[in-house]
Design brief:
2 domains, four-stranded antiparallel sheet
Amino acid sequence: MTLLTSASLLIASATGAASAQPAVQPEPAAPAAVPANPQLFAGATVYGPQNTLVGTVTGVSQGIVTVNTGTHEAPLPATAFGAGSMGPTLPVTREQLGLLVDQQRAAAVARRDAALVAGTAIVSADGQALGTVESVAGDRVVVLRPDSRSRLILPRALLLPHAAGLRTRIGLAELERGATSSGAVTAY
């Protein structure tokens, strides 16, 4: 599998293109056996073709290496990296990686927006049933709770595409706290 294909499978979009959130938020999965690359550690500089600077590793966890390019955060599979004389390498430039992240963000926003129709199931980030989309008005999504008597109003940017419909970026307990304190989530 090529880097671009591997990265395409992992990159789920942050719905705000200018968001400081990582561009890649892979679905939880069993970690695969990853060959050890001693050059992959937080703070390592990542290089591209002809030893051009791509970015800096900001984290390594469960086979996913997050690279900050200065304009994007891109978690990538550890298997996409090579070992070079100056540090870990990728077969793409900083600009190519940024373009890939932007394309994946746009695709995920389109998938999310296509799923924002009445009746679409929504689960919380911790996998709990939140309810279904009742209506959408601009950046506000009205969610009919499973009890069919209460509703939440969520900002559109809080939702991500999910295999079963949509999922929130945060867990149910945090959503319920937000409904009573922050104003970002409204219950009625």
